[in-house]
Amino acid sequence: MTSRFHHSLPTLLGCLRAAGEETRLRILALLAEGELSVSDLTDILGQSQPRISRHLKLMAEAGLLRRSREGAFAFFRLDDATPGGALALTLARDLDPADPVLAADRERLTAVRASRAAAAQSYFANVAREWDQLRSLHVPDAAVEAAVEAAVGETPFQALLDLGTGTGRMLERLAPKATRAVGVDASHAMLAVARANLEKAGLSRVELRQGDIYALPFARGSFDLVIVHQVLHFLDDPARALREAAALLSPGGRLILVDFAPHEMEFLRTEHAHRRLGFERDEVVAWFAEAGLDCDLAEEVTAADGASGQLGVMLWRGRDRRLQGDFPLRQFDREVA
Known about the structure:
Blueprint: H1 9-19, H2 22-31, E1 36-37, H3 38-45, H4 49-61, E2 66-70, E3 73-77, H5 83-94, H6 100-135, H7 141-152, E4 159-163, H8 169-174, E5 180-185, H9 188-200, E6 207-210, E7 223-229, H10 238-247, E8 249-260, H11 267-272, H12 281-290, E9 293-301, E10 313-320
Parallel strand pairs: 4-5, 4-7, 5-6, 7-8
Antiparallel strand pairs: 1-3, 2-3, 8-10, 9-10
């Protein structure tokens, strides 16, 4: 495999020294299958946490790995968008998969993932009753997902960000179309559910991050598609959250927002921590404009039979206006324009 990156002699020597040890090569082979925590690697490799941490620290300092925090956990992954990560992935893929040591590691990886999935689903089972109650009030999830996919359309995108990813369902639907896909959620427990779902769907290379929607850990202009699905009604300052999300768009990038239409179901505020009881169409259009987005779609999501449910669901789409001349906007509704 030919790397698209060039390394200086000192850098390459540093990377090779960092990788050139049996346990570290085994770690690289495991991380080529997807991100893992220190405790995952400790269980798989049967070595102490301090020893595994030292190996990871050495390889991270050499640029072979990326590290991210998720509550009390640290997760590590190979990032082939960086020179060191691309080299690490090349080394991992050059290892013989039939090697008995590596094969045993993969078997233990499968067991660790199964245990993790069971724990995640146990958590989700505890909140499923609340989710089912909410789902009964609005159009089926399948209709919402179809509406999002229709709003994405055939315009290609490379980097996808799903804010408030929850169970990871939007990533399951859209990540296969992206070169890079990232999901962010404030809840470690929900990220555990998403991680299990994505691994089951064969999408273990998707990045999951615990984060604050008001202080997202990404460079501006990093994504050409951002999804904000059923998140704003939990926030004290939804307009600020949209500005933060829009700032991550590349020129001409798109933001798709899904949330509730205005309603009077006060129990959602008192029992389910909703801060806002839905959003007016024009209110969101104005927030888009403040965030530098032109809104070219605002529609109510309905089921196949035209029903909208007791709790209306709205979808808005905005485009970063810096390339407006290259992306003609469609007038969707004189009422909104």
